[in-house]
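JOB MANIFEST
job_type = single_chain_structure
chain_count = 1
residues = 247
[input]
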Amino acid sequence: MPATPAWPPRSAPRLFVPPPLAAGARVRIEGNAAHYLARVMRAQAGDVVILCDDATGEWAARVAEVGKRDVVLEVAERLRPREAVPDLWLVPALLKKDRFDLVLEKATELGTARIQPLVTRRCVADKLNLERARAITVEAAEQCARTALPELAAPVSLDALLAGWPEDRALFFADEQGGEPAAAAFAAHSGPAAILTGPEGGFDEAERARIRANSAARPIGLGPRILRGETAALAALAVWMAAAGDW
């Protein structure tokens, strides 16, 4: 007797779409996503597509129509709710484009709730294409079966960040000059938090002093080795997730 096919198929393509999704709703897919479904995946009527809306969770849908420039899907059923993620922000200084792309991608995979890019004096970049950055986070979430996207904020200066920092959110500052070991600091903390990491050239002395003067700042060390900006951000995030029991 043949085995019953898995529902939904593990090979079904995944897409994020605007909320809200609901059983019976019809969703029109256009642009690059429609091209992907129709031309790359060669979707046909009846095929299954997994949809997420970053609000209600993950849904199975079936292809209803395949047009020249769009694909219409009919939502069948919800598979799981939007996943819970720890209340952790990542505040990485801007890096060279390819390195910051890596931070965006892997921070999404690891489950940070919010990414707040930062501009410091030694940053080699001071701008970020938010539309492109958002596309990177969405693609990473789709590839890793995430049901939640990180909130992505526009870059801000260090002064603006510190001036508006919420007092109830701990700001773990990855200081290359050292601090409390990150694993111990994270394990001892409960409540909202953020991790602040620097650019390729590190923070200058004035910036370091301003950060340490903030009442929410908690300097941490990331081990005996000097880490590149992208490595520091992702290593710290991984340690946090382990300490939070998210792994």
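[summary]
The radius of gyration is 21 Å.
The helical segments are 31-40, 97-110, 130-143, 158-163, 182-187, 205-213, 229-243.
exit_status = 0
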